Amino acid sequence: MIQENPLGYIIEIAKGLEKVLEKNVWENTGVTHTDAKLLMAIRYGPDASQVEIAEALRVSPAAVSRQIKKLVEKKYIIQKIKKESRRESEISLTNLGIETEKKVQKYLEMTLTNILHAVDGISPRTVEELLQVREALSGNINPIFQNMKSELKKQNN
Fold it and tell me: Looking at the predicted structure, is the pLDDT value of residue 40 above 80?
């Protein structure tokens, strides 16, 4: 029952929400969920290596490399080989990439706002539990995404 295990219920809601977001990101922004995560990783971790991005996204470096190639072809990002180390590259968003990442952010914020309105009346304790669940689900998160919190706070102020 919900009252007996509210944390379990919240985890199930979070899992369902991620599935909904995966499907709806494409419909509302024109990029896949995977594209959106990589665009956000590049924006919030502009100096991160491909290995760091892979760790943050919990995928293999090869998967990140393939995704970068795809986003370069779609003109969302630019990849330049570093002069000092030909094995490393600099990755940055193009104007299209910046515009698209902003659309993704706006969509995610709108979705979160709608969810918060839908669950209006949830107790502060439940909100705290939800935040703990989020932290637990992203326990191995890379500093790339830790910067997201401060960026979002700056945008909201």
Answer: yes
